[in-house]
Amino acid sequence: MNPIARRARGMAMTLLTMTLISACSATHQAVTPARPAVDTSATTSAKAPTEPTSAQRALAARAAALGATEVSAVPGPEGGLLLGGKLGGDQFAVAIPAQWNHDALLYAHGYSTPGSPVNVLDDPTAPGTGATGVLKAAYDAGLAAGHSAYAKAGMGVETATVNTLRLRDFLVRLGADKVYVSGSSMGGNIVLSLLEQHPQAFAGGLAMCGVTEGWEPLFAQLFDMRVAWNQLTRGTPYALPGEQDALRTALPTVPPPGDATDPEQFRGMQMARLATPVLALFKAAQERPDGPEARIARQVAAIGGFENEPASVAYPLLTIALGADDLRQTMGGQLYGNRGKVYRVPDMSANELAEFNRQVQRFGADPAAIAYARRWHQATGRFQVPLVTLHNRIDSLVPYAQSQGLGRIVHQAGNDARLVQFTVPGVKAPLPIGGVVGYTHCGFDPAQTVAAWNALHAWVERGTRPSEDLVH
Q1: Rounded to two decimals, what is the model's pTM?
Q2: Residues with Cβ within 8 Å of residue 227, at least 6 apart in sequence
Q3: Fewer beta carbons within 10 Å, N or C terminal of the chain?
Q4: Is 9 a residue whose pLDDT tops 90?
């Protein structure tokens, strides 16, 4: 669950992630299914086609007959087809290889800042989807690779579940046999939502850096972190700008009427406004380890349950500060409440701790929001197909605790045989503002993600559960 989508999401990732290193060979080679491939290319000429072949045009015509609107069909990589259009009014895109083996992999992207565009890339195999090479690897192995836009930005598990399932059903009618689903960040939660609520729809799932336990524990951390930051930085240069009520969005995410600023640029500017005081505090903390800034950093990180480092405080604060209004509107109320909670804060005297607990903002949770979050989606552990997860040991937005939480839930459900969890080290990168270094969110290189995908694919095709030390 990256806090920002496409350009705005890319800007956030630039702020807090490293440049992905080049992919090397995956640990496993993808398995070739037994069913003969369908040749959707017209020739084996090395010259790239400029028009769809007759077989590809027939596939596009069938897509329209199946209810897709605004259908487009253009030549894709290596003689394949890029099929696009709308299903139920929302955009989709699927890359179908020239030698399609009748299987498919769908990808669910992560969280996007409210107000962000909801469109997806026309070529799912191209860089920029967030899939970190997984869709391209599946396409190269003969699978169709696709993704769907969501009906809204921000908290989108419900619409993503509906739209991804709709795309799955469409591909089955188009000729797909087995369909897999993958996702990153919020998309990892969408994978759980699909596998648990639609147990017969997918052959297997891959959740990367995902909210795989559920939203209640994660947003408890984010709201606790925001109220702690507000309380501890009040009256200092490090206070967040804008609305100080932690239940509201701090800064608008769309330009006001009459403002000609490009919306994506506007969101990037708002992100920078929020990130600047956070990173300035950490810069001061690094320069003065015994100073007040270092003390605040330790306290906020401890209250939120994140690492005491710049990105692991900035990412959560930006996410909740720009998404609080959308969260309430989508879930039908406030998901988390802290009334009656006694905060334990390091480096505070008994009097300071009592004062903090008296002054920190308090609020209650709404049952409707809790019920919504549990449906969209709190893991039950009762999925019926293989599930592979991939998580960094330290992640600056979706803590490793989410991966551990899923493991506990699955074990309690007696379903360990269907889950394999890969853990890889956290990755640090310089942040372009603030002069500090921080951990990434979804800090994988393509070799790791492709190895995880190949492990899932081989598991489904061969029936052999992979070793949990396969990806590292």
Answers
A1: 0.90
A2: 246, 338, 360, 361
A3: C
A4: no
